[in-house]
């Protein structure tokens, strides 16, 4: 019999719950709120059968475009042939986690705003741009002893040591 | 049975064993029910969903209005039956009538906190009939969902006594009269008179009269506290009416004056904190370096 290409084909391990994490899922997943424009990671929870996304979307990150009673609408990029389509799917909240992809950006934004406010108070002009790491500065090598290494002539008798 | 017993739980068993949630292991939380009670519609965002939690211990009744959050459940208001002596009820603090009083107390307390107590008086005269709050013009009534916990919901359970108290107090709790004391399964109707009897403790009064006539010694033993406080079977209704009125008059919570807990002598050394352990490590390194005679002091660079 051929393999079949059903909706959940080839998901035996992908949708399986991790070791010793079976059964009821912790309640924080239900208590989280999502607003339109938030970034979320789609991660299927095999314990909840309703509102599961297709296995393609497992591990993808997208933006929330809709919020319904028990599910979130997420907009995810999918490459189809030569182009990338913005796909809109609806997923139950159990299969969604808040994404940390923008976390570093948001923190940096807040910090930069604070720096700019402080600089303005002092009357300075600062640049909050990130700089790429440059080449390391030059330095003098300290505490090095010089050891001159010269080759020694090859001694057949001693160096063969037994088997030849 | 001394000596060795062949171990049933191998190392392999323990390695693969998945423990249930902590509160499930303790037998305190029914997660199936909890998920369904807490789950709020996502398009209602941060609107809290309040649960009317009723729990019974051997000597006390706890009624709380709780909302869930990721940090933990937040209690908006709570009422205990050990507060009822303040309103004039000293005995029978875990019976159906006390449950009604506790529910009533909690309802009036919450409405006072939310400034709804003038708008929603509820059912002032407890008749035992099924009463649901009608939404007044202006603000909608305070809504909560009954959380019974792990008890078996049989007809006439004290939990529903507390529910009735809260309903008469003016809370909006979706319910049916099927489980109130006095619901006749044959007629499929609530007998309001019987329910009223339970609210005013007349079922206890009847038993008191019965025992006093037929088994005076058992009466003395069983109702000793009632006798001490001088409560007769005929006083029951008037007593509870007074308690209800007192509750409605002043439902605010009394600040409890508790002394700070006594300091006990420590018999074992106190565990160091992370910072203390790091600091002591830096000290030891500095001491080593200085005694070794090295020139650089090891300022911790992590």
TrEMBL record, chain A:
Pfam families named in the record: Ribosomal_L21e
MF annotations from Gene Ontology: structural constituent of ribosome
BP-aspect Gene Ontology terms: translation
Keywords annotated in UniProt: Ribonucleoprotein, Ribosomal protein
Transmembrane segments annotated in the record for this chain: none
Top-level taxon of origin: Eukaryota
A cellular-component GO term for this protein: ribosome
Coiled coil stretches, renumbered: none
SUPFAM superfamilies: Translation proteins SH3-like domain
Matching PROSITE patterns: RIBOSOMAL_L21E
Key word Ribosomal protein present: yes
Leader sequence residues: none
Entry keyword Ribonucleoprotein: yes
PANTHER family on file: 60S RIBOSOMAL PROTEIN L21
Family named by the database record: Belongs to the eukaryotic ribosomal protein eL21 family.
Protein name from the UniProt record: 60S ribosomal protein L21
TrEMBL record, chain B:
Domain Large ribosomal subunit protein uL18 C-terminal eukaryotes: start-end pairs: 236-289
Molecular function GO terms recorded: 5S rRNA binding; structural constituent of ribosome
UniProt keyword Cytoplasm present: yes
Signal peptide feature range: none
Pfam families from the UniProt entry: Ribosomal_L18_c, Ribosomal_L5e
Main location: cytoplasm
A GO CC term assigned to this protein in UniProt: cytosolic large ribosomal subunit
Subcellular localization(s) per the UniProt record: Cytoplasm
Gene Ontology annotations of biological process type: adaxial/abaxial pattern specification; cell division; leaf morphogenesis; ribosomal large subunit assembly; translation
InterPro entries: Rbsml_uL18_euk_arch, Ribosomal_L18, Ribosomal_uL18_C_euk
Keywords annotated in UniProt: Cytoplasm, Ribonucleoprotein, Ribosomal protein
Source organism superkingdom: Eukaryota
Region (Disordered): 251-273
Family designation: Belongs to the universal ribosomal protein uL18 family.
Subunit structure: Component of the large ribosomal subunit (LSU).
Protein name (record): Large ribosomal subunit protein uL18 C-terminal eukaryotes domain-containing protein
Native source species: Miscanthus lutarioriparius
